[in-house]
Amino acid sequence: MISVQNVYKQYGRTVALDGLSFEVEKGTTFGLLGPNGAGKTTLIGCLGGLLVPDRGTLSIQGRSDPSQIEVRRCLGVVPQFIALYEELTALQNLRLFARLHGLGGKALVQRVEACLEIALLTERAKDRVSEFSGGMKRRLNLACSLLHDPMVLLLDEPTVGVDPQSRNLIFESIERMKQEGKTLIYTTHYMEEAQRLCDHVAIMDAGKILADGTVPELIEQHGGSARIEARLHGDEDLIGPISRCLENNPTIHIEDRLLGFETRRPMADLTALYQAGIQLDSLTMESTNLEDVFLNLTGKKLRDS
Amino acid sequence: MKRIFHLAMKDIAVLMADKGNLFWVFGFPIVYALFFGAIFSGSQEGPSSMTLGIVDEDGSALSRQFVEELDSRETLEVVSFSREEALARVRKGTLSSALFLKPGFGDGLGGLFSGDRNIEMASDPARAMESGFLQGLIVQSLFEVVYKQFTDMDTIRSNLDLWREEIRNDVGSTLNTTIFLGFVDALQLMLEDVELDSADSALSGFNLSIPTVEVAGENKGPENSFQITFPQAMLWGILGCAATFAVSLVRERTVGTMLRLRICPISQAHILAGKGFACFITCLFVIVMLFLGGKFFFHVPINSVPLFFLAAVSITLCFVGIMMMVSTLGRTEQSVGGAGWAIMMVMSMIGGGMVPLVFMPEWLHPFSYASPVRWGIYALEGGIWRGFGFAEMLMPCGILLAIGAVCFVFGLWLMKRFHSVG
Ligand SMILES: Nc1ncnc2c1ncn2[C@@H]1O[C@H](COP(=O)(O)OP(=O)(O)OP(=O)(O)O)[C@@H](O)[C@H]1O
Ligand SMILES: [Mg+2]
């Protein structure tokens, strides 16, 4: 569906993309997770036909040049920076881009209305964009890319600077598109977003993909161990059975009926304890996430904060 | 084609949303046309008259005749002062030039070529153009007076008597005295043979007042000062439009909307054509508005409406090309806006849009042929009052279209080369 092979792009001396390769299956959502300057926007630019890679090949739906008009018809791009005519109203913006996508008549009216609903801006349709809040502009920025109902959608940090409500709204529209079988590429530096939305995630830094896979795969391979603490029920000595259940995990520690251990397979271990009839009064688990994956891969945090 | 139209409509809607733009594009040209039209309509003969200070210390019949001659000129107003006052005024700048006729001016006038003319002029160095023009008028008047003297036999005869007297009084050079007296006698004899009429006609070839030949068409030149100011106002309107659209094209890039346009299924040529079309429509609208205002409110006579519109369309296309080129000359609105205005200013400077060409240094004149402002005004005037035919319009319009095409192609090249990234 989308394939990127050995793509390389340089700005002067800065290497923005350093030999990237990956594939995105039809109907799946592919997340690009990386810190500032990782090269996410550059990659989206290349896929959207706005930039030409210095080396390597791209293909979208079997076509190698994304700037071809046939590709553009089925491709939507949500730019990282708000790209709207501030002097015009939301409605005027939507109508213009719908017309430029070749819509007209009833289809135009329907799509414009649908997109206004997606952006929750039906009430504010006739207000100028310059009068909108940042979150409203974000929502409209997304809506303007959905007018032609593209089969492939490239989203470049579509949730920057929006409140949790708008963010949820954006997530919902993305999830709806997933259900409709659209193929999505989603860039972000929020791991929760990638974890929630993406089937596949690639971790990017300095123009390279450091690791990719499904979220559980990445966590299992690069996330390190989860820490589990539990209060044991009853007062018999359980050291033997527990060790057996947890395959002699060397991190097991029991003191005052409190059991603690670290594991890379927390669910499997807990199931084993349960099946061995070991009862727990309470349980806390510090699970690993993509943030840990990133930290382990690069030695730095995704975001400064 | 439809998409170009939609793009253009968008640009016009964006333009309309900004009150500041609206003024520069639509308001300013109207104000310009009305303001200058009204100012010039007071003196339909041309530029306002200049004042020349006169200090007549001679007070002879000839000096008075000379001052009268100067005063009779339409463009000149002569005011008498004392020497001190005249100098003070020139120094302060309230008078551009003062002319001093020293004692003996009247006697010396006959010997105009002897070098001792008893005439002096003081000029304000800051108004060199004006004093240069005045000097021309003064010399012309001097010739006029001398010419009258030479065609008047009585004056000549009395001059000869005067010379004879002077030669006789000049003791010491006896040989020379007889030779000179003989020469004067011979001159007198010759002049007595000459018939007065033929002397007059022989000298009349030197008449310095230049007869004017009718050059304008049926309209006999601009009848109405608005005929001059409206074409200029139209040019200003178009300059304003072109600058505004050049900036708006850059703005698309800096704001990011260019990126969004480029991901739409349209080509870069569509985007540029849309911008050009919007600029074209707006310019034409300005022209039509000024045309209608001029025709119905100020009764500006228009010689040929079709030729006028031929000129208008050519100018507009020319400036669409220039707009495209200017928009590629910078990366920010400020730099393009600055470059735009600078280029437009220079074009209208060297094209005579602001200061008449004669006031420019000589070496600049050939450059004016490269200024579309010059050709634009020329073409509009051709349709309004110069009474051009279609064939005569072809040159200015062709030049305008050529300039526009060259700029367009160059701009396109620059854009492909340097601005292909949204
Ligand atoms: N137009 C440009 N000119 C020069 N260098 C650029 C340009 N655009 C991007 N870069 C450089 O390329 C690298 C990748 O930038 P890019 O915008 O793709 O990062 P990103 O992952 O999108 O970052 P962010 O999360 O901050 O949006 C950076 O080092 C950046 O400085
Ligand atoms: Mg980015």
Question: Low-confidence runs of chain B (pLDDT<50, min 5 residues)?
Answer: 42-47, 198-210, 214-219
Q: What is the alpha-carbon Rg of chain A in Å?
A: 24 Å
- Strand residues, percent of chain A: 25-35%
Tell me the structural class of chain A.
Answer: alpha/beta
User: Distance between the terminal alpha carbons of chain A, to the nearest Å?
Assistant: 36 Å
How many DSSP helices of chain A? 11
User: What quaternary form is this?
Assistant: heterodimer
**Strands side by side in the biggest sheet of chain B:** 2-1-3-4
Give the uncertain stretches of chain A in residue-range form.
none
Structural class of the secondary structure composition of chain B?
mainly alpha
The proportion of residues forming helix of chain B, as a percent range, comes to 55-70%
Largest sheet entry of chain A = 6 strands, mixed
Describe the protein:
The complex is a heterodimer of chains A (305) and B (422). Chain A is of the alpha/beta class. Helices cover 34% and strands 27% of the residues of chain A. Chain A has eleven helices and 13 strands. In chain A, strand 6 (152-156), helix 6 and strand 7 form a beta-alpha-beta unit. The longest helix of chain A has 16 residues, at 164-179. The model of chain A has no long low-confidence stretch (mean pLDDT 86). By secondary structure, chain B is mainly α. Helices cover 68% and strands 5% of the residues of chain B. In chain B, strand 1, helix 3 and strand 2 form a beta-alpha-beta unit. Chain B starts with a helix and ends with a helix. The relative contact order of chain B is 0.10. Classes of the chains: A alpha/beta (305), B mainly alpha (422). The complex binds adenosine-5'-triphosphate and magnesium ion. The site of magnesium ion has 4 residues of chain A, from helix 1.
